[in-house]
């Protein structure tokens, strides 16, 4: 089949590589244009260039100019993953078979930009990938492929997303082959079960020590590698010091008279009471410095039992 690949972020790269290695022809790789003060090429753009696939970064794929370019290429199918723009029905219609989209959740759960992060944040034990037939709605089309994946209780969102991206490429290829032979199985989503997964912000990273140790651990895992969880050590002198928290471990129950956010053990470890249970900080990053194991941090910083984190 003649395929147009639409993707921007790293989640889409394994699918692009799998399509390129297959018997199908990738006519063009389309990604969102670079943004920001120091714009960098998108991961999909870099991958396409390394594979020798033509690439393009239009402001929008829903313009008349974009649709005309696609029509001239005569694609059979649009394959979309981690692209960043909802395609209108007129855009989907440029391909003979329309479009499919790889999404990193078991739809209709976690529709939106951050499905992997929200699954980890909520402490889910299972997630997966869904390939849908695309409609103009947000992740709302019928499913044509599903792959269920267990979540390790210590796995970060970044680690899980990498696994899902690799497995997702296999699922995309399976669905593409079914579409080529007309053997796909279509299952409508139950809209009543839909949940949302909006993009996380830096504000999601602030640790609230009145929450349980397990909830905070899930927060730390979910916000890796971005935007990352953080807390402030209320030092007796020098003002508060912000610490980015990279890795933690559950550490027993807190004493009944220990307030959340108070240090209950220090020395070779740093254990803090939460609303339910204690949490041991394992790897942290002081503001303006590199990440380090907590033992290294404690050698240069005098954290005492009874100090407060907020």
Question: Which structural traits does this protein have?
Answer:
alpha/beta, seven-stranded mixed sheet, Methionyl-tRNA Fmet Formyltransferase, Chain A, domain 2, 310 residues, Rossmann fold
Structural topology:
Layout: E1 2-7, H1 13-21, E2 25-30, H2 43-51, E3 55-56, H3 64-73, E4 77-81, H4 89-92, E5 99-103, H5 115-121, E6 126-133, E7 143-150, H6 157-181, H7 213-222, E8 229-234, E9 241-250, E10 263-265, E11 271-273, E12 278-286, E13 292-293, H8 294-300, E14 308-309
Parallel strand pairs: 1-2, 1-4, 2-3, 4-5
Antiparallel strand pairs: 5-6, 6-7, 8-9, 8-14, 9-12, 10-11, 11-12, 12-13
Helix pairs in contact: 1-2, 1-6, 5-6, 5-7
What does the model show?
This is Methionyl-tRNA formyltransferase. InterPro entries: Fmt (IPR005794), Formyl_trans_C (IPR005793), Formyl_transf_N (IPR002376), Formyl_transf_N_sf (IPR036477), Formyl_transferase-like_C_sf (IPR011034), Met-tRNA-FMT_C (IPR044135), Met-tRNA-FMT_N (IPR041711). Residues 1-175 form the Formyl transferase N-terminal domain. This protein has helices at residues 13-21, 43-51, 64-73, 89-92, 115-121, 157-181, 213-222, 294-300; strands spanning 2-7, 25-30, 55-56, 77-81, 99-103, 126-133, 143-150, 229-234, 241-250, 263-265, 271-273, 278-286, 292-293, 308-309. The protein is α/β, with parallel strands linked by helices. It has 2 domains: 2-193, 3-Layer(aba) Sandwich (Rossmann fold); 202-309, Methionyl-tRNA Fmet Formyltransferase, Chain A, domain 2 (Roll), CATH 3.10.25. The strands form 2 sheets. The chain has a 7-stranded mixed β-sheet. Helix 1 (13-21) links the parallel strand 1 (2-7) and strand 2. Helix 1 runs parallel beside helix 6 (157-181), helix 5 (115-121) crosses helix 6 and helix 5 runs antiparallel to helix 7 (213-222). The longest helix has 25 residues, at 157-181. It is elongated. It starts with a strand and ends with a strand. The mean pLDDT is 96.
